[in-house]
Protein 1
Amino acid sequence: MQVQDLDREVSTKSSIADLVTNTDKQAEQTIKEDILTNFPDHGILAEESGVTASDSAYQWVIDPLDGTTNFVHGLAPFCVSIALMKDNEPLLSVVSELPAGNLFWAVRDEGAYCNGEPIHVATTKTIADALLITGFAYDHDAKWETNMNLFKEFTHVSHGVRRLGSAAADLCYVACGKADGFWEIGLHPWDSAAGILLVKESGGKVSRLDGKVFSIHDQQLLATNGHLHQEMLEKTAPAIASIAGSD
Ligand code: IPD
Ligand code: CA
Ligand code: CA
């Protein structure tokens, strides 16, 4: 089946902008069935159906369609994003970027690849020479306002800030050097789990917006080519400190 022929019948979740389609649900079901056929004792955390409990050290974290809003409107990019966690750290990850058809994957300590070729972060040294990406969660709360302000601040001092609509794709673009840094406030584990391994394995750096170690259960994420990390933290850390409950 071609991407354009997939089911786009849409309903809303937490707000008028938080969309889900039959394709999200069907893709998740298919991915879960494949995983549990091959690894029946593994755990799963999937966006649309939640947790499949397990005592295993292995857990698959699945976003069956990251960028659903783009998908509904026929705008690129949107992705399937899957990470295998071992002891709560990504061990391997796969992101299928659609409709471009690029397949990104990474294995812990073994590098990051796109369509079979090794990928590396960009060498951009300063924000003044950088292209940045951000995203916005569906709740229009204090975190959202704070991120709007960061969007303005970074736009003013960089080559620009893009909002592309798929956190998994955003992280792939940092990993392969198309962008230099990505941040967001309000992420879920399935948005970040696969992409952060791609960034790390391509030579980049990942942390929370306050500089602390990032776990996929943190909502706030900064992922950069490494060179920009400290300079970006100088803006993101005070911003995140200004809002309560931003973890
Ligand atoms: C969303 C996308 C978007 C990001 C949101 C996510 P979804 O995921 O990744 O870029 O800004 O925070 O929720 O809902 O399309 O799977
Ligand atoms: Ca998502
Ligand atoms: Ca999704």
Protein 2
Amino acid sequence: MSDKMFCYQCQETAGGKACSVSGVCGKKPEVAKAQDLLIYVTKGLCAVTTQLRAENKIVKVRINRLVTLNLFTTITNANFDREKIIERVQKTLIAKKRLLAEVDDKKTLPTAALYSGADVEIGVLATADEDIRSLRELITYGLKGMAAYLYHANALNFDDEKISAFMQSTLAKLLDDSLNGDELTALVLETGRVGVAVMALLDKANTETYGNPEISKVKLGVGKNPAILVSGHDLRDLEQLLEQTEGTGVDVYTHGEMLPAHYYPKLKKYPHLVGNYGNAWQMQTTEFEKFNGALLLTTNCLVPPKESYRDRIFTTGAVGYPACKRIEEVDGKKDFTELIRLAKKLPAPTELETGEIVGGFAHEQVFALADKVVEAVKSGAIRKFVVMAGCDGRHKARQYYADFAKALPKDTVILTAGCAKYKYLKLELGDIGGIPRVLDAGQCNDSYSLALIALKLKEVFGLDDVNKLPIAYVIAWYEQKAVLVLLALLYLGVKNIHLGPTLPAFLSPNVAKVLVENFGISGITNVDNDLKDWIG
Ligand code: SF4
Ligand code: SF3
């Protein structure tokens, strides 16, 4: 196994090519290699579970969840704890060994299924052919995104064996050297199809558990109580924390992708869920410092914490950092006592800003406004919708998205989801006849809402093709959940998506060409040019 790391799974990869010395995200080579190993042994386990299913044997939910969490653990900015990752490798190997004993026909199993720790070439570069490697990684990253969505649905007791079976058989196929480019391309589209299914499952889980998001005002200022800041995407973690902090005098604030929690009836009912603090994930290095209180990271994105606030961070679920305390789930529950105890001893947050923002425009809420929206389109008051969803990030190039939003003509409406929204949600872009010009549907996990809204508009306008709608897609990506959302949109037939701030480094020229030719995917240039071309 080579000593160097190789990772190009996110948008911020070094030099737009690959992190090969150390991760721009802070991932060290030993962590990167542990993650590669975890992916490899998970593929091996999946070859075994796929064979078991082929022999009509049942794969336990526990095993499905092991695979899901393994994938989620390797998503960008989730887990930097090598020891914990190696523990997962060992757990996976033990599970695989047990399951292997149940397989009748072992002849067709690949080497990885029999792997028990020997030194074999794993990692991304183990696939020599640049195009095959590109397709394999595109699928792997889509599956990592799928695992994140499935994990959140699982946390609310929603599950789907078919989705797990797909994830596992697909991971197993990535070990199969007989698959050619066309077969892998077909698998990319299949990943998009199942991507839609997993997003629908999570939407059902969220809305049936917490109610449909409602138009809500969220406070940006702070109070005088000691407080806990919750980041990441896990609503169940937040709910448990809200239950356990009730009546303690500790306030709870959201950070980054947790903001949309304020839109759910069953979460916003807690009076001590007081507001949203700060902005998107990359701002945490300054904002966590100023928050003063205790910090809970439920999922990505974690930036390796500065010493000034490291001892205030607790991680849980897929997240991990060696120096931070962890909260494990025991019998379906998490005990936040230690976190709350710490919060009580700490000063109240330093105010960053005041005022409020409005969100909660998920599918049901927008459907309720459908008549108004259709009327505005027919009268010409709304000329175009611009789906500006996805991720935020550190690169200066992302200023493009704030500038683009500001420069959009006043008769356009932005539909957003994901942490990309922080580039324009606070801009006061006004409204069109009472319809705000930025409609926030929620987390990246709620991107499904944007697809449903597009399909609904297609229906009410009686169109036969979603691409005939007055919608432009300007998607900012960073990590692998965005990859899955992109594949899901392609599966739904959406064409001409403008992806930025740069195209993925893991797309080889040939694979990029396939995406451009078949789906019209393109990058961004500059605001003036792009506005002219896309909005007119
Ligand atoms: Fe580099 Fe992104 Fe991989 Fe981190 S996740 S090592 S920044 S490519
Ligand atoms: Fe953001 Fe990580 Fe992608 Fe959930 S929090 S959208 S980057």
